[in-house]
Amino acid sequence: MEHSTIAIIIILLAMVSFALERIPLVATALLASLAMVLFGVMPVEEAYSGFGTNVVMMVAGMMIIGNALFETGVAAKFGDAILHTRFARSEKSFMIMLMVVESTVLLFINNSAIVALMIPIIAAVASRSNGKITLKNVLMPVAFVAVIRGGITMSGSTPQVIGQTALTQIGLPQMGYFKLAWVGIPRTVMCIIYFATIGYALEKKVFKFDDKIDQKLLTPSTAGGGGFSKAKMWISSLVMAGSVIGFVSGIFSLGFWSLLGVTVLIATKCVTPKQAFGSVDWNTIGILGAAQGFATGLNVSGGGKVIAETMINTFGGVKAASPLLITTLFIIITAVLTNILSDTALAAIMCPIAANVAVSLGVSPYAMVIGVILATGGDFTPIATAGLTQSLVGGYRFMDYVKVLVPLWVLLVITTVIFSPIAYPF
Asked: What is the secondary structure of 53-80 as a DSSP string?
């Protein structure tokens, strides 16, 4: 059997396993990568080479830097400041303020960390409002926008760093820190407008359950920055700012700046080594590293090229196939699958295929790959994206997400289809 066929079979089996989730996602990713070695698709060193890449270093480093803002009290102080603003007196204005803040001031923090910060803030305001502000009406919009604004920068979520790898594997340079912003910003703005209008009205109609706030959610937000070292708060804030400046400068790699920031935090005792390693989501790192392994197998075996040629031939061959039509197809397929598959796992499967299709067509792959990256965010179920899953503490049922988010999901797909080819011409 051809290596390309074996690689495709392994990817298909991995996809089924990702969807069923009978075993942890990281186990599936590792097994898929190792299977590529066992069946002779790629050499053994390629199976684990992804764990030492710039991408993995950047993601792990930003997890530690982001968590340092919690450990040193910066997040608590920020949350306390929000609690005392005049926007916290009206439910809609409070919701809009939080969505704007997480999309601007907190733009460079990972989406899951943003949701973790916002939950206690919303719970605290709701508990003090005498029913004027509810957790259920504010949390879902804030969590959803946290996921979408993660698609503006390279450090906002994991799929973009997987797409980065897919592009570098076909010989393209690394994307700039704000490369995705041309489409990510319109998507974010549209989400904020939706929740301020149609979405908010739908919530009022759909959420008939009582607003119940778990008292455990109130603890983090009431710390108010008390008892924390001001010096450490300043250091951790400057490290975050310095990392972002380094990312944008283009000098050295993203991984370099992340690891430099982590080194400063540990050297100044803002975090201990134990806290640093404990703040890393090793499940995400495992999937990210292993996914690069089986993506390499798909490429070196020619499996990616076979899939690309099959798709192109379905649409009439290289001369007749429309890059715009195929890009649209990639975005729609990804947007549908992201409701049942982990965004990280889905990006690991779809990005290399999109890159190969673009190469076979002889066009720039950015529209297809970035379209896929962004389409992995914006699911209307709480299953596949960690940021949205965290919002379940709001007491929502599965169908609550579907009823409120499906119209927005459609708008996001349309926006991505329209803006991707404009922002990244073929």
From this structure: SHHHHHHHHHHHHHHHHHHTTHHHHHHH
Instruction: Tell me how far apart the alpha carbons of residues 26 and 35 are, in angstroms, rounded to a whole number.
Output: 14
Residue 58 CB contacts under 8 Å (≥ 6 apart), including other chains: 154, 155, 161, 253, 254, 255, 257, 258
Closest CA to 145 of 197, 198, 184: 184
φ, ψ dihedrals at 52, nearest 5°: -105, 15
Q: How far apart are CA 345 and CA 135, in angstroms?
A: 31
Averaged over successive runs of 10 residues, the pLDDT of the chain (426 residues) comes to: 85 78 80 88 80 77 81 76 76 93 83 77 79 90 93 85 85 87 96 96 92 63 58 90 80 84 93 87 77 74 76 72 89 85 79 88 92 90 75 85 94 96 93
pTM: 0.74
Query: What spatial distance separates the first Cα and last Cα of the chain, rounded to whole Å?
Result: 35
